[in-house]
Specification:
Radius of gyration: 31 Å
Number of strands: 18
Order of helices and strands: HEEEEEHEEEEEEEEHEEEEHE
Distance between the termini: 102 Å
Strand content: 25-35%
Structural class: alpha+beta
Oligomer: single chain
């Protein structure tokens, strides 16, 4: 090979190598997080002006809407939403500040999942739209992939999520890393509904009936501290005291997992078992328990109460105690009436509760008996 030709090849190799190094360094620079001085991502919008929040991904969309002072979930027939969860999400978006500015242009957005979502789109993020009462967009943000402790520039994860890549949907071109992960901001209505449900307390009796022979039983107790006893036991029946004392414990702490829209039909409810619960306060709860779907159980409830309208004085009551006792009676009556009004609102819908809530109660009569010696 001639000396001149060799020199040309060497020079060409140097030029190509320098160009490759330049392109590589530019690509890496585009991924290098740069410090931002606590910049607010969405600016100073008015959080109190938000009347609707829409969460959209490539696989689904859901909305939360404000009705007066109450937030509701339209996908669940305007069922009340968890006000604390909604207001907390809006507040965090309002306060959201950059931890780092990410030098990534639109060509890198798919790798950060910062592409605006479309049906079935790959590498898209979560779009959160905040809308006012007139239907006008206040602001919007795209939530991308999580950042992990120990993450590399190529996106490799190591450890737990310590933030998330985001960008404003109204200001093009700039991506940021923030400390929030916003894991709750998903288009899942069940994540946002109010979890409250009826609260049967001070239980006096529990009865079960069903469509099959052997499903019926009733247990009662004389007072709140007495043992539970099986009503009308047969001569050959020996109830297990431990079973009777354990299964009512979950009833005072019922929590909703999900709820259907009004009038929705749930398969299997025509064969539901009926659980009737009475309390020492005069409340009667009638539950209809359907067939479990995995870890969820469909439940309906009606609530009634037989509340006294006047106090019956004790035989040994002293006149000087009458005023205080009358006041205490009226305060308790007011509380019970408010409880009844609140719990009547759960009628007319089918709720999904965790199956384990009724695991100890959904027993046949034979299951309440002690094992043969």
């Amino acid at each position: 090979m001639e000396k001149k030709t060799l020199q040309i090849l060497v020079v060409a190799a140097v030029v190509i190598g320098a160009a490759a190094l330049f392109l590589l360094s530019r690509e890496q620079a585009a991924w290098t997080p740069q410090r931002a001085a606590g910049q607010k991502i969405l600016g100073d919008f008015d959080p109190n002006a938000v009347a609707r929040m829409v969460v959209k991904t490539a696989t689904g969309t859901m909305a939360l809407a404000r009705e007066g002072e109450t937030w509701v979930v339209p996908e669940r027939g305007n069922y009340p939403a968890n006000f604390t969860a909604v207001s907390d999400a809006i507040r965090k978006l309002w306060e959201l500040k950059a931890v780092q500015e990410v030098r990534a242009g639109p060509s890198q957005f798919p790798r950060l999942q910062l592409v605006e979502p479309a049906d079935g789109a790959k590498d898209s993020g979560t779009l959160v739209d905040l809308i006012d009462a007139g239907g006008k967009r206040i602001t919007a943000i795209i939530l991308g992939k999580n950042s992990f402790l120990g993450q590399t520039d190529e996106g490799g994860a190591g450890g737990y999520p310590n933030g998330r890549f985001v960008r404003s949907a109204t200001a093009q071109g700039q991506a940021y890393l923030v400390a929030e992960t916003f894991s709750v901001l998903e288009p899942k209505p069940e994540n946002w509904i109010l979890r409250d449900f009826v609260r049967p307390d001070s239980l006096r009796s529990i009865s079960m009936t069903g469509s099959k022979l052997g499903e019926e039983w009733t247990v009662t107790r004389e007072n709140a501290n007495a043992e539970w006893k099986l009503s009308d036991p047969k001569p050959d029946e020996k109830p297990d005291v431990a079973k009777l004392s354990s299964f009512p414990r979950s009833l005072p702490s019922l929590t909703v997992y999900d709820v259907t829209a009004p009038g929705a039909t749930v398969p299997g409810m025509d064969k539901a078992r009926t659980l009737t619960v009475q309390t020492f306060d005069g409340f009667t709860y009638t539950f209809r328990l359907g067939q479990a779907d995995g870890d969820k159980l469909p439940v309906t409830v009606t609530t009634a109460a037989d509340l006294p309208t006047a106090r019956t004085p004790a035989t040994d009551e002293k006149p000087e105690n009458k005023e205080a006792l009358d006041k205490a009676f009226q305060e308790n009556l007011t509380r019970l009436r408010a409880k009844l009004d609140a719990e009547k609102k759960f009628e007319g819908r089918t709720f999904w509760l965790p199956s384990y809530t009724f695991q100890q109660i959904l027993r046949d009569r034979a299951d309440l008996m002690a094992a043969p010696a």
